[in-house]
Amino acid sequence: MKRRQFLTCAATALAAPALMTRRAFAAEPGAPLPIPAVMEIGPDAGHTLTARNGTRAFMDGAPSPTLGYEQDYLGPLLRFQRGRTANIDVVNRTDDPITAHWHGMHVPGHLDGGPQLAFAPGQTWSPELPVDHPAATLWYHSHVHGQTADQVYRGLAGMIIVDDPDVDAGLPDDYGFNDIPLIVQDRNFDRSGRMSYDLGMMGVMQGFRGSEILVNGAIRPKLTVPGGLVRLRVLNASNARIYDFSFADGRTFHQVGTDGGLLPAPMGRTTLQLAPAERAEIVVDFADRAPARLVSRDVGSGGMMGGGSMMGGGGMMNGGGNSDSTFEVMSFDVGDAAVTAPATLPKTLPSDIRDMGEPVRTRSFRLNLHGGGMMGSMFNTLIGRDGQAMGINGDSYDMNRIDQAMQLNETELWRIDADMQAHPFHVHGTSFQVISQGGRAVDPQQVGLKDVVLVDGPTEILVRFDKCATAETPFMYHCHILEHEDAGMMGQFTVS
């Protein structure tokens, strides 16, 4: 039996670290990395994803109220196959409306799981998803307007892997052994050790940042890996934090994939920056059998209210607090398991990046912080002309307003800029190509297919849609700092 088949039946148990508090001291790392159970989704009935209330003790003796799909916190890894319909029943057993947004999937608007498709407690949503997407690492999460940040923070999220049966990339693919999902999140914990979401003005304006790092729901865990090539599928599922990953020993790794699929060739790196909702697949060689620590530089979001360092609701990150400091994400040691193929990386990869042609029109988007400055009285300065704190092109999100109308199979150039700080910009329903970022030209072959781009200065992307979205169930574009999205930094569009 392959490890993938075994792990479909049972997930690794989550061992809770010792009780700590973020204000007095940091939690001790080292719990085993939980490996999410796999739910293979195909055309048959019987695949159920139940959103439910839960309780999780992230620290000993300190149970926290949580949300999860099929479990107390987060959800199973959903595995789809390209060219094969995926039938799934999403059941709401929580106390509030939810959705299941298939982030990054190329599906029509009525299957996308955006805010218009929220469904109430006790109801079931049963989409039939035509899987028309290259092999990639995607994710899913609730997307209810005004509640996305809270629901994702509490656990309504999980990873998706799309497999392409016609493509053999020559990469490690033994799930749970040399092919590992890493869902990276930052969370705050109160003095009792319970997870907290104490959102204040700074949390709204900069996005909420926690003072402890969780990977797959465990605080700074440890993973035992084989002494060879290991593929790490890294998802930044934090509400607002930007990570700049590296290994503490400075080792080189190779990036093989990004949001929308594989790169044309492995790219050697020593650092990897991921903004909220971005994904990357990297391959690390542990043949030296030396233990390793995955760390991140403490990256600021830039400019706004002097917010350079990444601080939690009540304290700095694991003793960090400036852009020159680093904090630990997780650690690795090398076990005695036999090394499995492949022994070397392929020189090229079956990427799906194609020439999109010349754009037929240009659209401009500016991500706005309303209020005309920060000198007024606290929250009053945060409210824009239409009653929300943030917007795009001067307007906050309105579920009853269509902001843009796109045409099927036409390439467009989108120019995006932002007020006062960097914002991760996400587009539903497609993958796009980044051609400039921060005012500098970008080679799409180096960056790969994307559905999130960090807008830190003028940014240009080429977009093309081959899935329809009606006014009743439109696609979204928005900042993926979830507090910004909830505060109105979102628009919606049709494709016909």
UniProtKB/TrEMBL annotation:
Domain Plastocyanin-like: start-end pairs: 53-165, 386-495
Stored SUPFAM superfamilies: Cupredoxins (SSF49503)
Example GO biological process: cell division
CDD domains membership: CuRO_1_CueO_FtsP, CuRO_2_CueO_FtsP, CuRO_3_CueO_FtsP
Keywords: Cell cycle, Cell division, Metal-binding, Oxidoreductase, Signal
Domain of life assignment: Bacteria
Gene3D superfamilies xrefs: Cupredoxins - blue copper proteins (2.60.40.420)
A UniProt-annotated Pfam family: Cu-oxidase_2
Single annotated GO MF: copper ion binding
Signal sequence interval, chain numbering: 1-26
Protein name according to UniProt: Cell division protein SufI
Lineage: Bacteria, Pseudomonadati, Pseudomonadota, Alphaproteobacteria, Rhodobacterales
